[in-house]
Write a structure and sequence with these properties.
By secondary structure, the chain is mostly beta strands. β5 and β6 form a beta hairpin. It has 2 helices and 8 strands; from the N terminus they run αββββαββββ. The radius of gyration is 19 Å and the shape is globular. Helix content is 6%, strand content 35%. It has one domain: Roll (Pnp Oxidase, Chain A). The longest helix has 4 residues. A two-stranded antiparallel ribbon has the order 1-2.
Length: 130
């Protein structure tokens, strides 16, 4: 079953690869397959596939970029993007948050998500720049 069809999402053609991308996505990456590794359980049944790819094109909506930056040095604001990662199966987890136990609550209870510090990554130089 297609998640795109089931959720009535719109797609837009990519520029480099054949597969379409989601129109509503604030950030999308076009990737080319490098390698895939099929993982099997103890019974030898295929249970999952680990996929390695190379990003060949980024599509980033302006509203998730940090304001006031040089146009040639854009930086995605992770708080505005609010990305979600797949934890496995049908479990997803917001990127940049963690669940922690608190001494102020019963040991069986979990606190709400706690925002983690956003990492600051240096912008890589362009070809020829140092």
């Amino acid at each position: 079953m297609s998640e795109v069809s089931e959720l009535n999402l719109n797609t837009t053609p990519c520029e480099v690869i054949k597969a379409p991308r989601l129109t509503q996505a604030r950030l999308s990456m076009e990737c080319k397959l490098i390698h895939k590794y099929e993982v099997k359980n103890d019974a030898g049944e295929h249970t999952t596939t680990i996929v390695m790819g190379r990003v060949v094109r980024f599509h980033i909506h302006e509203d998730v970029l940090e304001k006031g930056r040089d146009e040639d040095k854009p930086l995605v604001d992770l708080c505005k993007l609010n990305p979600v990662g797949r934890a496995g199966g049908t479990t997803y987890w917001p990127v940049g948050v963690q669940n922690t136990k608190s001494d102020s609550v019963d040991s069986e209870e979990w606190t709400d998500r706690v925002t983690m510090v956003r990492p600051q990554y240096p912008i890589p130089p362009k070809n020829g720049d140092k």
